[in-house]
Amino acid sequence: MVCSDESGARFERTVWQNLLECEVFDSQGRLTAGDALGVAVSGGADSVSLLVSLAALSRAHQFCLKVITVNHNIRAAEESRGDALFTRDVCDALRADGVDIAFFMEELAPGAVFALNEEKRTGIEACARDLRYAAFERFAKEAGVHFIALAHTENDTLETLLMRFLQGGGALGLSGIRMRRGRFVRPLLTVSRTDIEAYLTKKGVAWRTDSTNADNAYFRNRVRNELIPFLNGRFPGAARAVLDGAVKTRLENDVLEQLSGAVAWKRAEAVDGTLLDGIFSDAAHVPSGSVFCAVAAFDSLLPGVQVRVLQNGLALLGRRVRFPFRLMHSFCTERRESVNSCGIEIRRTKSLIVIKNADLLATESEFFAIIEKSGRFEFPFGNVECTVDGFCPSEAAVLFEGTAGSVLLERLPLPFCVRSRALGDAVRAADGASKRVSDVLSDWHVPELQRSSVPIVQELCTTEQEIRAVLGGIFGFPNWIVRG
Asked: Using CB atoms within 10 A as the burial measure, which of 45, 305, 331, 396 is most buried?
């Protein structure tokens, strides 16, 4: 037995069985690839319990552990570097106890995460994740490990499912976190955080706590700290029902994945818009860098499968944005010629479905920024003062100041985007219909050269990512504000 305590032994057996399910080890307990198992450790309870349980298993099954910790340098230096040094100390203690273990640390340059967010505009957490996984890939090559164990838990799955439900996710998002994806395996995915803390407590092992875990300005933290306790208190069994539902959805998602695979996307690597293979008669509609598929194959599918095909194309394009479902659905069911959102255009031509980066207006007044916290921000049109509501940290009062006036938007959901207009922008009217932003500006008699300076406010916290306001008031024109 690996651990003398029965509950501890049960914990370690669960981790081992999940590693077997992920085919990290064969039935004889040998690594199926390489001579060591990688493990990512942050210093928190989840990853420390993973490390400690794997250390116990390494003694029993004679394999080497190689540990990677990443210091993102986005919190106070004392805290973030302290987590990394704590992880190093845990590894040193395990090595002194006879575990075959090696420690690797990568520190991201201060400001690297924020710089990437300035470029991608996808949010601090998403950019930190991108850089972290890039560090994991470098570690895998340097350390010579084929698999890297990550410490996602059953609680992480529940939080993710609720977040994606609230964001309007479909089968792809509501199927949960997979236990294995490529080189990354998650042997704690069937283990609860309560069991993790109980395991470490009985082992007498300490862990670090990220100070940002209590900050409910973050969407995941609000789900973890507010929504889940509410569901557990008012609807007993809700958490288990959500987790079980994800298993069913995963099976349905696999069917969609198989059916959508019948349509192959290609990347247009072209010069002057001419495809190298010359297959299609309207190849000139496919600019370099876009992706395309045959319209005949696309139109032969049911709308639900067509939406998945579009999602596959968006993934190949490489833009990490959540394209509105309602636009993809209308493109499929109404056979629309094009839809445009988030700087991306989906277009139907004579023989192709094309997804490309949308053409931006060529003007010195282009701007784009994601705002997710309190602060004062400068733009070409003036300033934006954002004040987060102390009682509801998911909303803010936002004051826009321009050359001819100011506009206050109250209870604006965070995060939101302030940007210049793009081709295809449309805004919702009071009767539920939509109107092109270009027509709105024309009705207001905004001079052509000034139209790209009028700020567009777009929500980012919902699937629709609807335009909430067109703020002509800062230049002395009317405002178009979507209520509710």
From this structure: 396
